[in-house]
Write a structure and sequence with these properties.
By secondary structure, the chain is mainly β. It contains 1 helix and 18 strands. Strands 1-2-3-4 form a 4-stranded antiparallel β-sheet, covered by helices on one side. It has a 4-stranded antiparallel β-sheet with strand order 5-6-7-8, with no helix packed on it. A 4-stranded antiparallel β-sheet has the order 11-12-13-14, with no helix packed on it.
Length: 196
């Protein structure tokens, strides 16, 4: 039994070392930076250009983007020719290059930016509300934290389900979000009701 446990330990440590070594070789040989894997691909940067490699280190999407986010829900936001759009894992345009900035999809929605304001689009590219928010964070538990002067939360239809009345707010976690109003921190539920 001790021999079997020792062998398992040596094997797992050896695999970890091999993976670490492989990552270092990829990182040191070709790229200035290699990010963690996301949906089977890793974002890489050489100079000012971004692309993607697979698990074996093969370049599957060329380094031609001026910025790239990780893949999420099958697509990645990338900057090309001065605008952000979304590509699939084959490098095909999934959503048009219309935005000044983008982010990663979460729960079927993604924050996108035009000028200095943000809005959300769904997976089909439908804009869910007017561009107006100065801050827009990924959806968590069906709510997105946004700011326009003060903080509040949107539902999946883009409705301000919890009004923008908070000085500060954190994302929902296990059915509650921590918020600050009139200098006091407390928790609220999905409908904005205070939780004691």
């Amino acid at each position: 039994m001790v021999k079997k446990c020792l062998l398992t330990f040596v094997f797992s440590v050896g695999c970890s070392m091999m993976l670490f070594s492989q990552d270092k070789n990829i990182e040191n040989s070709k790229y200035d930076h290699v990010w963690e894997e996301s949906e089977g691909l890793r974002r890489v940067r050489r100079g000012s250009l971004f692309g993607f490699i697979d698990r074996e280190g093969r370049e599957v999407l060329p380094l031609k983007y001026y910025f790239a986010y990780d893949f999420s829900e099958g697509v990645a936001a990338v900057r090309y020719d001065g605008k952000f759009g979304f590509i699939d894992k084959e490098g095909r345009e999934a959503l048009p290059f219309l935005y000044d900035d983008g982010a990663t999809f979460s729960e079927g929605m993604c924050a996108v930016n035009v000028g200095i304001v943000w809005a959300y689009i769904n997976r089909e590219g439908k804009q869910m509300m007017n561009f107006k928010y100065t801050h827009a964070y990924p959806y968590k538990e069906g709510r997105a934290r946004v700011r326009f002067g003060k903080w509040g939360f949107l539902d999946k239809n883009g409705k301000e389900i919890i009004p923008l009345t908070y000085e500060a707010a954190e994302d929902f976690n296990d059915g509650r979000a921590r918020v600050k109003k009139d200098g006091e921190w407390f928790y609220i539920d999905y409908n904005g009701n205070r939780i004691e």
